[in-house]
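FAQ: What does a multi-protein file look like?

Like this. Sequence, then tokens, then the next protein.
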Amino acid sequence: MHNAVSKRAALVVDGDAAVRDRAETLLGETDFDVVVCANGAAAVDALREGGKDFVLLLTTATLAGEIGGHRLARQAGEFRPGIRVVMSTGTPETCRARMPDAAVCTRSPWLPLDVLVQAHAAMREPRGPVA
């Protein structure tokens, strides 16, 4: 039987295929529909398409390309107000200064439990707009 209710989606964006695979496997064990992208431009395209109910973005501050991690976090909030952004970084204490208020910074490499805590929160309580 086909479920008429769409699953909430998580967008995983990282230039490292091993990190993307790890996140996809972890979040795939939850109730998320997981979409993976290798760069910020592909992620923005996925957010613009509108076919998924994205409530979680997992990315890295060091995302290479024209659309880096911080810019992606801001654009995600523009396209999907309420999306929970989780940014991995080597320096979470300085990451906060450059991040939108609704974003969470976690040490890189991220720990599965940290991601799962944020994933559960994204399912339960969407955050305010990312500004």
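And here is the next protein:
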Amino acid sequence: LEEEVIQFKEKMDQYELQLLLDGPHDANNAILELHPGAGGTESQDWASMLLRMYQRYGEQKGFKVETVDYLPGDEAGVKSVTLLIKGHNAYGYL
């Protein structure tokens, strides 16, 4: 019985995910842009942390993550970055 409950929960989780990813654009690739706001070096450093987070998340999900544009910060971090994230449901997961 316990095994059946586990299997049922897994099926329900899959079904819930399918319901969440049923939008018209969810199955597409995604373009992600990061632009730090006011705050100088600290905001640029935070943007670089977000960049690493999105890159690792995409790789963990099995997506191909390409850097389309990258403008480094003056002292640290990034001023601007654009990523192309390719894979089934990349847009939906982001």
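Q: Is there any per-entry metadata?
A: Some entries carry free-text notes. For the entry above: The chain is about 45% helix and 25% strand.
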